[in-house]
Amino acid sequence: MDSLPRLGEAGVGEKGLRESGVQTLDRSVAILDTIARLGPCSLADLVRDTGLARPTAHRLAVALERHALVVRDREGRFGLGARLVGWGAAAGGALALGEPARAILARLSAETGESAQLFVREGDQRVCVAMHERASGLRDTVPLGAVLPLTKGSGGRVLLAWAEDRDRFDVDEAVLATVRRTGWAATVGEREAGVASVSAPVRVGDHVVAAIGVSGPDGRLGRNPGPRFSGPVLSAAADLALARGGTVTAP
Description:
Helices cover 43% and strands 20% of the residues. The protein is α+β, with helices and mostly antiparallel strands. The chain has two domains: 23-80, Arc Repressor Mutant, subunit A (Orthogonal Bundle), CATH 1.10.10; 86-243, Beta-Lactamase. It has a six-stranded antiparallel β-sheet. The chain has a two-stranded antiparallel sheet with strand order 1-2. Helix 1 crosses helix 3 and helix 2 (43-50) packs across helix 3 (54-66). It is elongated, with a radius of gyration of 22 Å.
């Protein structure tokens, strides 16, 4: 894996760090990169490898520690934190889902005539990690990488319905219980006026790892889109689960 350039290497700013225009971010990433390459580091190690002033390196390392991005061992050395493990697992899972999802989303879109998306949870939000737009006509565009709330829309309901921390969110538990019972969710005008959607969970083992669904104008999907679109969406969810090594289970 390529690492950030260090002091004296080509392609860096005058202080030896890659420039993005956000100095604090550049310096924080340099600290994380140093720890990733060298293993647990003392403050002196960080100063020597990054070229940062000692007070700056200390301030940033402590800030990263508060966010659980680094931890300190008994000797006071900084190591990578468990939060990075979680982020890495989420990113890896999203990438692993995205590749087989492309063909499945294309098929779902062709079968329903609507746009199809795949969402994964990222913290208290959901992110579109794959999508297929309908070929023509009025579209409901959800861009790749779009960040949407967990509390609005059928995809959010699906990701929350089986979440252990669902009681933290302002969503009626009776609504989520219905999603768990039926195995799918449908909403009309909840996330955006005039937009309807139907989604189902993608299960790998005992975990819901994503929500797959279709969305479009309520004038096409109707005011009660669930009965019409849940079948194709559930089938697509099962196909993606099988592609990821999961098993098809009842809702």
